Amino acid sequence: MPIEDTTEFIKALEDAGELKRVKTQVDADLEIAEILRRTMYANGPAILFENVKNHDMPVLGNAFGSLKRLQIGLQTSDFTEIGQRIVDMTKMEIPSGILNKLKKLPELSKMGEVFPKLESSGPVTEVFDESPSFDKIPILKTWHKDAGRFITLGLVATKHPETGVRNLGVYRMQILDEKTALMHWQKHKRGAHHHDLSKEQGKKIEAAVIIGGDPATVFSAVAPVPEGLDKYLFAGITRQKGIKTVKCKTIDLEVPANAEIVLEGYVDPSDIRDEGPFGDHTGYYTPKEPYPTFTLTGVMRRKKPIYLTTIVGKPVLEDAYIGKVIERSFLPLIKMFQPEVIDFAMPPAGWFQGMAIISIKKRYPGQAKKVMMGLWGLGQLALTKMFVVVDDDVNVHDMDDVIWAITTRADPARDTVIINNAPTDTLDPSSPLVNLGSKLGIDATQKTRDEGFMREIQEKVLVDDVTKKTVDSKWSSYGI
Predict the structure, then answer these.
(1) pTM score, two decimals?
(2) What pLDDT, on the 0 to 100 scale, is given for residue 102?
(3) Helix and strand counts by DSSP (H, E) for the chain
(4) Could you give the residue numbers annotated as active site?
């Protein structure tokens, strides 16, 4: 059975020896962040801070800071299963004929089980705060040059103004005062698109910021799902059981019923202010940039909520592990669009948007460049700065193997692709303009005569199987 909420997740982590409780009083102003950073860099456990200065609300951090904790939270050891479920749904055909339909009923009923279900109430509706304030929540300041306190793991719910498709996205929010914050939804993100559509209609867009909940819904908010797929449905696909939702009190949005806290409000496109600086996952402070304001209109919460947060900075931190799960879970979807792809990796040190390595089963000349162009046109991969394409005999998760392929199979003049004036990640500190820069592609596949490689292709050095078996059988006798 899937984990239903933050409390269940804490218990599961604690039972597995993956969580520590801190009872010493800690400060949300820099102290908690420093403890979490040191813990993350040391590959330490999740931490529940039970005594936060000036607050009666515990803080949970580093909850997703290892693959083991994500396996516990998402109830799977093979994250590719998540993407494969979507692929399988796209391939499912509705049968003709009553007999064939009856045979398909068990399969079709399973699909129905993953859809969200609207409830009249839930744990998050236990308390409604009629005088809402950000000051009642232990929101952290994480770096000393940050512009203030930031919500870093709020799941921002919006609805497409025309289609009604719901979205969840994780966008940091800088707190300005007790009722106002800045919404850092980057230009390429779906929340920003909803905002732009509402702006064109001359309207403010309603938004709800969800804190905590079941791990699958938190993961779904981060995941770059295909355009048009409702994020609540994706959460159900991820956990193989539909999530329960409830209506907000002051805005027309549904939110997960098992959340810890829901911050209701609206984003005003006419009220733009400078946001930042903020110490980000690139390892640099993002500078001040204009973003719209979010105004708080109400707070729903549990009687005893837990504040879920995360800390970002120079990799590798907690977000790297979430990114690795995204990488694995979306591999089946990448293969659906690019069938020659064998494997795919986004090294954590490249903060995931910075670089991707792709291995392919090469069949024809120029195929590596075809794959690059296809992936640059696929959803959020459009923001990836560098692609390296290698043959299927190269392990994309072993950077030594990848570097070997680049240096032995790629000629810089022939095999390097540079695309100018292309979209870039807003947070990229190297791009000459915000949201606009260049792409680098490296074709590190073995070249053929069809690609103009007229030299004799050198044979790859491989271990002799007979010798290997002999040494394997005698290995313990060597005393090494």
Answers:
(1) 0.89
(2) 47
(3) 14, 23
(4) 280
